[in-house]
Amino acid sequence: MTMLSVRTSHEIQDSVEALLPQLVKDRVASRLAAKDASLWGKKAALEAVQRLGWANPFPSSRPLLEPIAELRGTLKERGIKRIILAGTGGSTLASEVAARAAGVELAVIDSTDPGMLADTLTDLETTLMIVASKSGSTLEMDVAFRVFSDAIEQAGLKLSEHVVVITDPGSPLEQLANKHRLLMFTADPTVGGRFSALAAFGLVPTGLAGVDVDRVLTEAMDAQAEFILDNPENPALILGAALAGQHPQRNKLVIHDDTACLPGFSAWIEQLVAESTGKQGLGLVPTVQIGSSANEDSIERTDDVLHVYLHGANTTLPEEAGPSVTVSGSLAAQFIVWEYAVAVACRIIGVNPFDQPDVEASKQAAQNLLAGEPNSTHNERGATDGPVSVAAYGSWIDHSKITGLESAIEALREVATERSYVAINVFTDRNSHRDVAAPLQQTITDIFHRPTAFGWGPRFLHSTGQAHKGGPAEGIFIHVLARSVNDITVPGLNHTGGEQLAAQATGDARVLAERGRPVVMIKVDDPAVGLPYIVDKLKAIQAAA
Ligand SMILES: O=P(O)(O)OC[C@H]1O[C@H](O)[C@H](O)[C@@H](O)[C@@H]1O
């Protein structure tokens, strides 16, 4: 019997109870466990047929334990003290949260920001980079690998002693690994990135960093035994029904981490929910409340919001007010219950859980910008406000009205509705500027009184970015581009890290605007000066409101 529990509040109880008999009758749980690709309709079945390995990941994951343990021993002998995980989205998020929850060091580089890239270049002799990418072609992974491998070679060190690769069979990264004779873990191609917490992408980096991955798999397997039963008590069915039971009316999740037991866990849930459900104008928009002090009372109590409370195992659960679902259990059990529940939610909503059709548009827009696409027809230059510039993208506003931060926020408030959510996405070196940027989320919530998603760019592009562009058209966007001052060249590419980051921010803002979303772009020359300025100015706007 697993220690995982799912509790629903009375506001959503009826819709959960209405759905459960049908989910049981349709044998959704046992069909998931049996990898039945027809659960999401005919069209989705074409993809689902090769994407259901996660439903029973144990046969392909267990054999990884021995090589992970062996390599960990070898790395110790070689004097490796720091492990950097390079990649993004599903290839890094599970490892990042599992390492954090276990209190072991694992540095993640999932950005093109020059400052974050430069951080990889210290203590090379004692550093290992794990390069992780399912497709083997993602920009962030490629850029980090190029910068790091060049430095390793310049330092006269052996690449094969400082780089380990995780990728799908046949990917371009596999070819690169073979060319350089790098140690490689081949991933199970039937497990998609965001469903890979209990597969190579989630286990190898954490295991090498020192997490007890044997225990993780054992706990997950024990928990899974309950999730595969066609039974109305099945926590995965209850969670799936709770998430999607009042969709499309209730389509925004406000997620609260248990910062003591599962710190940062919701960053992984955010990607799973946003990319799996947020498409065709449908789906659930996750907004994660960062920090334990997040003030949920400043969000209006409207019937489009569901609060999600996450707790570790053996926690005494507080009474939550308002429409909510509370999930408690170990990280391992939560990984698998969320994978099952989101797959169930996608069946209820009527979308294919395994594609992310709108992510590509921003990648393409960034590439077009780097290839010298002329400036957009919209006025993207914007107005100067102290050390920052502010511009609106899209045709939702007369651009001459934007004279600075205050007018931009005012304009966004004018278009906000009682169903809006706000997304503030900051493209910067999050290791250096985390603390200064942190108050932005609460300040924006206090101004708009709406659920507010906070994203680090470019990482959110591989996560909430899908729902922002493809999900419900209810988002209002503030992008902040605050790249590090000292740029970095990327060996073999024509563009610096800073140029890549700027193109990713601008490209995404353009795509959002083309899709009719209101967007404000704030550009900062020096993050150390510009970010505190934005925070102070927004606080003043909020105080005056
Ligand atoms: O593992 P990779 O192929 O590098 O992909 C990393 C991430 O990139 C994409 O943009 C997808 O939207 C994500 O679902 C994926 O997890």
From TrEMBL:
The keyword Ribonucleoprotein does not apply. Belongs to the GPI family. Pfam families: PGI. This is Glucose-6-phosphate isomerase. The keyword Transcription does not apply. One of its GO terms (molecular function) is isomerase activity. It is an enzyme of class 5 (isomerase). Its EC number is 5.3.1.9. Keywords: Gluconeogenesis, Glycolysis, Isomerase. InterPro entries: G6P_Isomerase, SIS_dom_sf. Pathway: Carbohydrate degradation; glycolysis; D-glyceraldehyde 3-phosphate and glycerone phosphate from D-glucose: step 2/4. Signal peptide: none annotated. It catalyses: alpha-D-glucose 6-phosphate = beta-D-fructose 6-phosphate.
